[in-house]
Amino acid sequence: MLKPQTSPTRELVGLDGLWKFAVDTSVPASPWTATLPTQLEAAVPASYNDLFADAAIRDHVGWVWYQRSVRVPRGWAGERVFVRLDAATHEGVVYVDDTKVAEHVGGYTPFEADITDVVTAGGEFRLTIGVSNELTNITIPPGKVTVTDDGGRTQDYLHDFFNYAGLARSVWLYSAPAVRVSDITITTDLDGSTGIVGFDIETTGADSVNVTLRDAAGEVVATGDGIAGALRVQDVRLWQPGAAYLYTLTAQAIVAGDVVDEYSLPVGVRTIEVRGTEFLINGTPFYFTGFGRHEDSAIRGKGHDNAYLVHDFQLMDWIGANSFRTSHYPYAEEVMEFADRHGIVVIDEVGAVGLNLAMGGGIFGGQAAPTFSPETINDRTRETHAQAIRELIARDKNHPSVVMWSITNEPASNEDGAREYFEPLVSLTRELDPTRPVTFVNVMFSTFENDLIADLFDVICLNRYYGWYVDSGDLKTAERKLEAELLGWQEKFARPLIMTEYGADTVPGYHSIYDSPFTEEYQTSFLEMYHRVHDRIPAIVGEQVWNFADFQTKNGFARVDGNKKGVFTRDRKPKAAAHALRTRWTAPRDAD
After folding, report:
1. Residue 251 reports pLDDT greater than 90
2. Rg (CA), the chain
3. Which positions fall inside the Glycosyl hydrolases family 2 sugar binding domain (predicted)?
4. How far apart are CA 160 and CA 257, in angstroms?
5. What burial class does residue 83 get, using C-beta atoms within 10 Å of its C-beta: 0-12 exposed, 13-18 middle, 19+ buried?
6. Quick one: which of 205, 234, 352, 504 is 20 to 30 A from 141 by CA?
7. Closest CA to 135 of 369, 333, 325, 384
8. Distance between CA atoms of 423 and 97, rounded to whole angstroms?
């Protein structure tokens, strides 16, 4: 799906701001048919949960409603008019006045509706958006809604981050011609010093398509025509980690010799390859340094904020991080675009976290039911999962920063049914995008001895917490166990390994002369132990600490004001470990 933009043939109006807001229990049935009877206003983009001083809203399970008036620019007569939501977590429905125009399941990818036939250029309409935060066994991520004895509803889920919901990303109104460019797929390759930019363009009925590629200075470096082909760029400048270079490809839809639509997008020329236990970018071995992260900040929840975007990337640059994983869902498109422009490498992850009922018992407990069964994670879940993969790749396929697809985090990959569930999803991912490696993120329960799916993937990502959840406070024992396990993965699978999660909860300002858990000293010692092991395992090609910053989790005894594994606090103050990481990650790495 192409992101809306302004161009010589398109216009874009942002609908962010304050919207009327109400939960479903406080409005009549069919609330889209009239003005919402509420005094509450909610910011868009933002999760709604922490905006109000009302626990009933924070913990609400079900639908909430947003509403505002929108005027269509009068100059849009004769154009197609669309409303687009960058995300609605986790299910959305859109009404223009009394007419339902769109509905969508999946909380982190965009959807839109052509509303031309129900609006008028220069006219005003009532835009009402319903958003549901409910998670069930067939949603991605999964969860369970329980009705309590008093008729209330509670939401349970197995992922360790708060179930923020609402309109956390922007809403847009845009115009485009009836005959237009509807999709573009870019691939890149190298032939010596010549860059090859492949293109595949879809239109809604153009006679022909013209394609132009310009360099960063705006000079034309290649042209082509047709809906598919390849452009050759002599002496190409590559998109490199830490040194991004972007060309601009412009596609023009032609009808009867005239340009009727024009769409442009940035292009980074680079190659990706997995060779043995190496991960190569532009033919050079790459070592991932960085973080698992969350879209999370005080008050906004998962609401996208450009100030946080800039500051977070500045902190990653300061600490020497060259990459991150979009744990555990697709991030806002602005994040991906920023990574493109600044040469940050991204492991792009679909929202499939919590596919592991053993996590319901915690690291020390068991489970009451198998993860994969007709009553739990089943064929309908997999259909939802497949759609989430389709939408992620459709949205992010052209980002040069995205070097790998992660199709799940910490699934029950050691349980019966795991291979039957995941093998079709791996095949689908490769079919949709044969140019990028595919990975999954393995949980500690699933070892190299009992994991049933690791051989399906190009790269194996591992989350390990020796020294925290296991052997807490005993880093000597943890180091022996960690090394032994990594050697087992290396020997059995002989492919790249990335440590995508390792960390220890740390209370800022808590200190000790001993390696005491929860102290800043222990977090530093914990990370240093892992790094010693990483440096002894040739197949390890990256390390992404869990987590970049402290983040909010659901209520419960296991967390006090959230997960404290960040090397930065939730308001982005560095803990001691941040300085230690900076020392390691800014030092030159050995060539081997």
Report:
1. yes
2. 24
3. 14-177
4. 56
5. buried
6. 504
7. 384
8. 44
Mean pLDDT over 312-319 rounds to: 98
Residue 343, CB-side half-sphere exposure with 13 Å CA sphere: 13
31-56 pLDDT per residue, tens? 999 999 999 999 999 999 999 999 99
Helix (H) or strand (E) holding 427: helix 418-432
Domains present along the chain, CATH in parentheses? 11-176 (2.60.120.260), 181-270 (2.60.40.10), 285-586 (3.20.20.80)
Per DSSP, the three-state class of 401 is: coil
* 3-state class (DSSP) for residue 46: coil
Helices in 271-353 by DSSP H: which ranges?
306-319, 333-342
Rounded Cα distance, 261 and 233, in Å: 25
pLDDT of 363 above 90 = no
Residue pair 64/21 in contact by the 8 Å Cβ criterion: yes
Q: Please tell me whether residue 541 adopts helix, strand or coil conformation.
A: strand
415: annotated active-site residue: no
Residue 364: pLDDT band (50, 70, 90) is: very low
pLDDT in tens, 322-350: 999 999 999 999 999 999 999 999 999 99
Is residue 377 within 8 A of residue 408, CB to CB? The reply is: no
Per-residue pLDDT tens digits for 516-556: 999 999 999 999 999 999 999 999 999 999 999 999 998 76
Contact 418, 452 (CB under 8 A): yes
* CA–CA separation, 438 and 425 (whole Å): 10
* Beta carbons of 282 and 240 less than 8 angstroms apart: yes
For position 150, what pLDDT does the model report?
83
- pLDDT, the chain, mean: 95
**Is the sign of the CA dihedral 81, 87, 92, 97 positive or negative?**
negative
How far apart are alpha carbons 248 and 236 in whole angstroms?
13
State phi, psi for 158 to the nearest 5 degrees. Answer: -105, 0
Taking only the tens place, the pLDDT of each residue in 13-24 is 999 999 999 999
pLDDT of amino acid 557: 60
Q: Are the C-beta atoms of 168 and 304 separated by less than 8 Å?
A: yes
Q: What's the rounded mean pLDDT across residues 72-95?
A: 97
pLDDT over 90 at 399, yes or no:
yes
By the 10 Å C-beta count (0-12 exposed, 13-18 middle, 19+ buried), 242 is classed as: exposed
Question: Tokens for 462?
Answer: 């591992």
Place of tokens 């060259």: 322
Whether 410 sits among the annotated catalytic residues: the reply is yes
208 sits in which H/E element: strand 208-214
Q: Cα separation of 423 and 442, whole Å?
A: 15
Span 404-430, average pLDDT: 97
* Active-site annotation holder among 410, 415, 485, 520: 410
| Given the residues 91, 295, 391, 501, the one annotated as active site | 501
